[in-house]
């Protein structure tokens, strides 16, 4: 039973990949079927390849018209005035 479910999920993911490329109206149904199958047997998620997970995410993004954001580069906070004064030292004050 598990191998057939695994095969069905992989088959649906491949079909989803093709539907994403052609913006097919059956894409929401495929996403729903994949969701049901993975909800019924969550251990199947660990068997998915990274590429298969990316296809599902691309399908969700295309269907919902939302996009996951990559991590933004963090900006180092500006030093406070006190920290800058400490870094200057006595030489800055003619000493």
Secondary structure: elements and pairs:
Elements: H1 2-22, H2 27-40, H3 50-64, H4 81-88
Helix pairs in contact: 1-2, 1-3
**Series of H and E elements:** HHHH
What integer value in Å does the Rg equal?
25 Å
Shape, per Cα inertia axes: elongated
Number of distinct beta strands: 0
- Give the assembly state of these chains: single chain
DSSP helical segment count:
4
Strand share of the residues? under 5%
Span of the ends, CA to CA = 82 Å
Low-confidence stretches: none
How much helical structure, as a percent, in the residues? 55-70%
Average pLDDT, all residues: 79
Structural class: mainly alpha
Largest sheet: none
What is this entry, summarized?
By secondary structure, the chain is mostly helical. Helices cover 61% and strands 0% of the residues. Helix 1 runs antiparallel to helix 2 and helix 1 crosses helix 3 (50-64).
Describe this structure in words.
The chain is mainly alpha-helical. The chain has a domain at 2-64. Helices cover 61% and strands 0% of the residues. It has helices at residues 2-22, 27-40, 50-64, 81-88. α1 packs antiparallel against α2 (27-40). The longest helix is centred in the N-terminal third of the chain and has 21 residues, at 2-22. It is elongated. It starts with a helix and ends in a 7-residue tail after the last helix. The relative contact order is 0.12.
């Amino acid at each position: 039973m598990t191998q057939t479910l695994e095969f069905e999920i992989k088959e649906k993911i491949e079909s989803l990949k093709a539907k994403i490329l052609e913006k097919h109206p059956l894409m929401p149904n495929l996403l729903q079927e994949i969701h049901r199958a993975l909800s019924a047997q969550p251990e199947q998620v660990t068997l998915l390849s990274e590429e298969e997970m990316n296809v599902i995410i691309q399908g969700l993004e295309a269907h919902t018209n939302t996009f996951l954001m990559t991590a933004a580069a963090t900006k180092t906070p500006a030093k406070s005035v006190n920290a800058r004064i400490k870094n200057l030292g006595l030489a800055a004050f003619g000493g």
